[in-house]
Design brief:
376 residues; 3 domains; seven-stranded antiparallel sheet; five-stranded mixed sheet; 45% helix; elongated
Length: 376
C-alpha cells in the first residue's frame, strides 16, 4: 500500500485500511488490522481478523456475518486457505504495520503515512556525511530541496506529526534552523528595501510592512504585534464623517500598550527650504505627518473606551512613530541639514521620527548578529 491512514480509536488502539487479499466481482476477502499497545509484549503490536464482504447495489462492500465455530458439525472442518501471492501480500503489509507501530506508536487523531520510495528512501537512510556530500555537490539542487521542505513544513496540515519530528531533533539543530529561517527572512526584507528605495507608493510600503511586521519591531526595539492596518482611531462627527485612520495600530506583546505608526515613503522630503542661513525647516510633509499622528493619538485617547472595548489593549500614552524619507539620499553630507533634522525630532516628546534607511539599517545589523551566530 503506497499510503495508509491511521485513526486512533483510543489511547492504546488505532485502526487502518483493510488489506485486500482476494477480490472477485461480488465477494472479497480482507484482513482488518488494528494497531495495539501490548503491555505484556510490546513487540506484539498488531492484531486483526479475516473478513469476507459482499458488494451491494451501491458498489460498496458490506461485511458478511461470521459463522460461529460451535455450529460446525462433527466431521466438518472450518478452513481458510490463502494462495501464495495472497499470503505474501499479507506478510508484506504486516511488516509495514509492525514497522509503522514501532516508529510512530499509536498516532493521535487521523494521520496519513506515505511510503518512501526511491530518492526519499535513500535520503532517509543516508548518514549525515553522505547527505552533506550530496547537497554540497549540487548546491543549487540542495538549496531548492531545502526550500521545498520548509514550504511544506509551513503549510503542513498535520502539525502534531510535524512537531513530533521537530522534537526528535537536537536542541542545537533546532536553534540553528530557527536562526537560519530568521536570517533568510531578514535578508528578504533587506532585498525588498534595496530594490524599492525609489518607490513612491504609500500603498506598496503599507502592504510590505504588513507582511514584514518584524521590521517594525526594529523601530520600536520592543516585541510588538500589528493589531490592525488602516485602523480607525476615532474622530467621526455626528454625521458619521471625518474619521481618523492610522496606517498601523500596534501593541507591545508583553504589556499590551498601544502604539500608532504613520508611514509615508522613502521619497518623502525630510527638510524644507533654508529658513535662515544654515537653518532648515522641517518639510511640510514631515510637519503634516507629525501633526496628523498627534491628532490620531488624541482621538484614540479620547475615545478609547468605545474603540478598545472588550480587548486587553491599554492606552496610557500611545507611542507614535512617523516613518518617512531617506536620510542618506536627501541629506547627504550636508551637516546643516542633518543638524536641523536632529534638533527638530529630538525636541518632539510624543512623536518619534524614523527614516526608512534607519529602519532597514537596524534590520541589517540584526541580520549580521544572526549571521555571526549561525556561522559559529
Amino acid at each position: 500500500m503506497e499510503s495508509r491512514t491511521v485513526r486512533s480509536t483510543s489511547r492504546r488502539t488505532a485502526t487502518t485500511e483493510d488489506v485486500v487479499l482476494r477480490e472477485g466481482p461480488l465477494v472479497r476477502l480482507v484482513f482488518r488490522p488494528m494497531l495495539v499497545e501490548n503491555s505484556n509484549d510490546p513487540s506484539a503490536s498488531v492484531k486483526g481478523c479475516f473478513i469476507y464482504s459482499k458488494k451491494n447495489r451501491n458498489g460498496s462492500w458490506d461485511d458478511l456475518p461470521p459463522t460461529p465455530l460451535n455450529k460446525v458439525k462433527v466431521g466438518e472442518e472450518y478452513r481458510l486457505e490463502l494462495k501464495s501471492e495472497e499470503l505474501l501480500c499479507l506478510y508484506t503489509e504486516l511488516q509495514d504495520l509492525y514497522e509503522l507501530r514501532r516508529d510512530h506508536g499509536i498516532p493521535r487523531g487521523e494521520v496519513k503515512f506515505v511510503r518512501a520510495r526511491g530518492t526519499v528512501q535513500a535520503l532517509a537512510t543516508m548518514t549525515d556525511e553522505e547527505l552533506h556530500s550530496v547537497v554540497a555537490g549540487a548546491e543549487s539542487l540542495g538549496a531548492s530541496a531545502v526550500a521545498r521542505l520548509i514550504r511544506w513544513a509551513a503549510k503542513a496540515s498535520n502539525f502534531d506529526l510535524l512537531f513530533s519530528r521537530l522534537e526528535e531533533l537536537e536542541p542545537d539543530s533546532l536553534k540553528d534552523l530557527n536562526a537560519a529561517v530568521g536570517l533568510a527572512t531578514l535578508h528578504r526584507a533587506l532585498r525588498t528595501w534595496h530594490e524599492n528605495r525609489e518607490n513612491t507608493s504609500e500603498e506598496f510600503w503599507q502592504a510590505t510592512l504588513s507582511k514584514q511586521a518584524f521590521v517594525l519591531e526594529q523601530v520600536f526595539a520592543l516585541p510588538i504585534v500589528v493589531i490592525q492596518e488602516k485602523a480607525y482611531v476615532g474622530g467621526k462627527s455626528v454625521t458619521n464623517t471625518g474619521g481618523h485612520v492610522a496606517d498601523f495600530l500596534v501593541a507591545n506583546k508583553v504589556t499590551h500598550d498601544v502604539g500608532i505608526v504613520e508611514i509615508k515613503t522613502p521619497a518623502t522630503s525630510l527638510v524644507g527650504s533654508e529658513y535662515r542661513k544654515g537653518v532648515y525647516s522641517p518639510s511640510s510633509d514631515l510637519a503634516g505627518a507629525v501633526q496628523q499622528v498627534l491628532v490620531y493619538k488624541h482621538s484614540l485617547q479620547t475615545e478609547q473606551r468605545s474603540l478598545l472595548h472588550g480587548s486587553d489593549m491599554r492606552v496610557s500614552s500611545p507611542r507614535c512613530i512617523v516613518l518617512l524619507g531617506h536620510a542618506r539620499k536627501q541629506l547627504g553630507q550636508d551637516e546643516r541639514m542633518h543638524l536641523s533634522l536632529e534638533l527638530f525630532r529630538k525636541q518632539l516628546h510624543d512623536v518619534e521620527i524614523i527614516t526608512f534607511d534607519e529602519m532597514f539599517e537596524r534590520t541589517k545589523r540584526l541580520a549580521r548578529l544572526l549571521q555571526h551566530g549561525v556561522s559559529h
